[in-house]
Amino acid sequence: MGQCLLGTPRTLAWLPPLAWAALIFYLSSGRLEMGDLGVTAFGGFLTNLAHPGAFGIFALLLIPLARRRPHPWGGGRWTTLTPEGGLWVVAVSLIYGFTDELHQSVVAGRDASVLDILSDGVGAFFVVLVVRYLGRDDATEGGLRRRLLGGLLASVAAAAAATAYAERVGRGPWPF
After folding, report:
1. What is the DSSP string of 3-62?
2. With b meaning 16 or more CB within 10 Å and e meaning fewer, what string describes 127-165?
3. Least confident of 22-36, 38-52, 65-79, 81-95
4. Rounded distance, CA 90 to CA 137, Å?
5. Does the pLDDT value for residue 166 go beyond 90?
6. Among the four residues 28, 30, 59, 97, which has the most C-beta atoms within 10 Å?
7. Is pLDDT of 134 > 80?
8. CA-CA distance, 78 to 90, in Å (whole number)?
9. With bands split at pLDDT 50, 70 and 90, how would you rate the model's confidence at 41?
10. Cα angle vertex 66, ends 63, 69, to 5°?
């Protein structure tokens, strides 16, 4: 998938992240009923776990907008995602996550939470971490597995924290 995304001309590279952002907006516009899916016991956890995944994908779709260089393993192209470029991708993801929560704060049946924005950032951060690692000459399968596992564990921890907060206190913290 990465090679396909990176092969997209820059003039069209904005389309996938815009389409994904539109999908997130659409999903945020309605009331998500986990009971309709037959999932009730862990419904809150699953919806909280969707945040890092959705915004990780959003970050992945933003990455092709960075400068590119030949991939160290040959064939195709890869991004020269600098620390500043990675910060930009995470920042754009967080800003969109914030606007998504603002949107949810005015949608009937939905609520907004700072914890959701933090979960969004976890997903974006770990995608950037993995992509930057894959661009290194010394990247190995073991190193990739460790980073992917770290991202998964951090995503689960963020979802668990948001779920626990909601179960004990109620709606997540939202200052607006």
Report:
1. HHHHTS-TTTTTHHHHHHHHHHHHHHTS---GGGGT--TTHHHHHHHHHHHHHHHHHHHH
2. bbbbbbbbbeeebeeeeeeebeeebeebbeebbeebbeb
3. 65-79
4. 23
5. no
6. 59
7. yes
8. 18
9. very low
10. 110
pLDDT score recorded for residue 40: 46
Residue 56 has pLDDT above 80, yes or no: yes
Q: What is the dihedral of CA 163, 168, 170, 176, to 10 degrees?
A: -80
Give the CA radius of gyration of the chain. 17
Lowest mean pLDDT among 78-92, 95-109, 112-126: 78-92
Per-residue burial over 69-93, b = 16 or more CB atoms within 10 Å of its CB, e = otherwise? eebeeeeeebbebeeebbebbbebb
Tokens coding 154: 């951090």
Structure tokens at 93: 């993801």
Residue boundaries of the structural domains of the chain: 2-168
Supply φ then ψ for residue 24, to 5 degrees: -60, -45
